[in-house]
Amino acid sequence: MLREGSGKRRHCFQKSLMNSNERITNLDFIRGISVLGILIMNSLSFSLPLSAYFNHPSVAVEGTLDWILIYISEIFVSQKMMGLFSVLFGAGIVIFIDSANKKNYKRPRLLSIWRNSLLLLFGIFHALLWDGDILRIYGLSAILIIFLYKKNIKILLILSLFFTLFSSIIAYPWQGFFDNEGNLILSEANINIWPDKLGLSSYWFPEADIKGIKGEAIYSYFGLDALFRAIGMMLLGVVLFRSKVLSGNLDIKIYKRMAFIGLAMGVPLGILSLLWLGLNGYSPDVAIIGFIPNKIGIIPMTIAYIGILSILNKKFSSKAGSYIRACGKMALTNYITQTLFCYIVLNILFINAELTRKEIFIFVLIIWAIQIIWSKYWLDKFKYGPLEFISRKITYFK
Question: Which of 35, 228, 271, 282 has the largest count of CB atoms under 10 Å?
Fold first, then answer.
């Protein structure tokens, strides 16, 4: 009887361990896809004027294939991969604090604040190389998540919706700051707050990017959008983690339903934005409000991706899935090295080349191949990625 009881306990322990590993592998798989996916949009900012990201026909469009890439990236990638990354970051905060509690750290929330302060510092240095860095926003946003994550799930969900959709809420009044040529409407208040006359600046006009003109009005909108959207999606990550959705262990029918409903809502919203912009000839009149549908679509598309990727994590062979999960485990290293690759290749080696979107996408495919292979190779030899190892050492002072 003692042996039988011991066997049962061992079986329960192994089952618990298996469930824990499955949860972790699901998060790593989703994170791996998201860190690879964000390169599609981030690479544009190294090789093209900023307007290419928003005013699509303004630069680097030479044919049908370029337009196909615009539609695919805008509907399926733009802000969605970063939304997915933010969801996982929010879940990661909860996991870190829970782990610190289990390890009997006296002040786990304070330890998490310290960890994210290091991330903020890392982001500041990263921004010296690329001003599109997201780590600074994550480091700042994390503090709010640390103090909110135990609140009622319904409250967190309401806050998530508010923060994520905040930039859509203020889009119409912000559009009113500009005339139909994209210039800042000069009221006395606007002159005092935003002195730059070319209000939409490099956001919409490629020549402004070349001249180094940055409009304070539109960049203030950028800042609010990025910060509030990050907070909103992190809160959604907390909700999905506490609801066991991110574990990957729910019934497969739930993940299929997430995928179907999310795509059914998100894809039409992305198409609507492109139609709105296109039918208005990408006029400055719709430079901000034209993206409202696509921004609303971030939440359903992110939920759809979680459903799809949770299914794929189960369906992929262990060998094939291990390459993607390795990318996720080395997300920080891969994110930073993507910047290094983009800076060296696009900003130095091909600085004088006039690249189109299809040529940039070929570059993206090459970087994907490199990171998929090296992540698996590195983690077969070491427990952590290089920057993950350094981060852990500094966080725990050991």
Answer: 35
- Predicted structure pTM score: 0.89
d(CA 151, CA 340): 39
Mean pLDDT of the region 80-103: 94
Closest by CA position to 164, among listed 227, 221, 223: 227
DSSP type of residue 250:
S
Mean pLDDT of 352-366: 92
Angle between helices 298-315 and 252-279 (to 10 degrees): 140
Q: Which residues lie below 8 Å from residue 363, measured CB to CB, with a gap of 6+?
A: 43, 345, 346
Look at 190 and 313; give whichever has higher pLDDT: 313
Q: Which residue bears the tokens 């002040």?
A: 107
For residues 118 and 198, what is the distance between their CA atoms, to the nearest angstrom?
37
Nearest in space to 163 (alpha carbons), one of 275, 238, 215: 238
CA 44/CA 342 separation, integer angstroms? 9
Q: What is the DSSP letter of 93?
A: H
Q: Which of 267, 335, 249, 251 shows the shortest CA–CA distance to 303? A: 267
Read off the tokens for 57: 């026909």
- What's the count of helices (H) and strands (E) in the chain, helices before strands? 19, 0
Report how far residue 285's alpha carbon sits from residue 269's, in angstroms, rounded to the nearest whole number.
19
Q: Which residues contact 317 (CB under 8 A, 6 or more apart)?
A: none
Residue matched to tokens 């900012």: 45
Bridge partners of 178, per DSSP, are 184
Residue 312: burial class (beta carbons within 10 Å; 0-12, 13-18, 19+) = middle
Phi first, then psi: give them for residue 170, nearest 5 degrees: -95, 5
What token pair was written down for 101? 């509690």
Q: Quick one: which of 197, 174, 193 has its CA closest to 185?
A: 197
DSSP codes, 119-186: HHHHHHHHHTT-TT--HHHHHHHHHHHHHHTTS-HHHHHHHHHHHHHHHHHTHHHHHTTB-TTSPBP-
